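Q&A FORM
Asked by: J.P.
Topic: structure of F-box domain-containing protein

PROVIDED:
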Amino acid sequence: MSNLPQELYNEIFKGTDNSNLLSCSLVCKAWLPSTRQSPLFQNISMTNSNADAFADLVMNSNSSFPFCIQELTLDVNATWLRRLLPFLQSSNIQSLRISNIDWSKIDEHTQSQFISYFPTTVQKLAIGPAVAFEDLVGATRLINQFSSLKALSMKDVQWSRVRAKIDSNSRHSTVHNKTLQSNPNYTTFPFYPLPADCRSLHFTQCDLSDLSDWLHAHKPFPNVPKLHLEDAKLPELTHLRAIYINASPVVEELWLSFDVTAGPIGDFNCAIEVVYERESRGKDLVPRLRIPKQVMERVKGYCPEDRINYFLPSLVKLRFDNFVYFSSKDRSCGVFYALHALTFLACRKNCTPLRQVICGIMLHRAGDLDRHVIDWPLLDIALLQLADFARVGGEEYRVDGSETGFRIIFEIGGGANVEAVTALIQVKLPQSHIESIVEFKEVTVG
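REPLIED BY: S.T.
REPLY: Here is the structure written out as tokens.
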């Protein structure tokens, strides 16, 4: 067989499914690098059920394919972790995920060995779900060892909370890095700093109060352009806001997701996502409130205005994915939440004017729109108020080409006749239609 450049082999096998790659890897030696560096061995997930056979294969052969692995998931107990250390030493892993393990029960020697195999290669580290540490210091120690780390995610990671308020004579706690000091409101164990090149943090279902202490221990605040904080609880909102305030000067994309299941009047079963993005021509983060799909099962009369205003004094864009979702009243937020949120935003003062609202409408038939009991007259009034607010807000808030500076865009999909749905909504929002603040777009759901 003729000798072709390796890059050409790689291009030939690109996109080939695993079954064919396996067959091709047995044809000739020249094809081995392309087939093994492809998805056949590029992404490996190791569990307690397959670790034995996999370890025997690796340890009893001179195979070079471990070096081809770029993404590795370790979902094994401490015993298997010790057995796999020799295999990991010959790897070239760039993305590592550790899940379902109690790190605090692994002896220090094994921990040190494990960490020593990865620092120069791993760029993405995912910890969790179901990973436990003795304390946050242990977690930060592990993270700190990955010197080439560029992205860190933690989901459902547990540690013991050992935090106590300092007395009046204490100024800050001791830290491992001289450039760090802890949050002055607390005495904590010394933290290990985030690797200097890390540019993305993603925390889900973790103790944000402790993580806030860790992030604020850095002086200055870590330069992390992408920061995702998800599933925060109400007691953590103060810490969430503190992170937002300190991250704002450096972050390019900030996601906040917090639960608002409880209120003074009743239960509100909804999760709110806030996306902050830095516009290309702007210096400030522009927040966009996102009401994700499948956010409600039932609603009992309460809209968390205080929490929206707490985080969004400069909200300019608002999106409701499921303003109308086919015939489902439970999944259609236009019936209650979206309307309540818009009427609140239309009345708030001393805030940046809202300039764009996007409402997703999914219908099989245009006539199904009337199955949803939406207070269209009230919505019409709220939209006019938002338009008036934007009109007096100044040129810097205007949408390009807009006379009022405000638009509501209905994105219509699901198979219904777009022209028919458009005509129905125009009739239901007569004043907004006359003022030309309503737009319609057809969307295709892939």
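FOLLOW-UP: The first strand starts at residue 43 and ends at 47.
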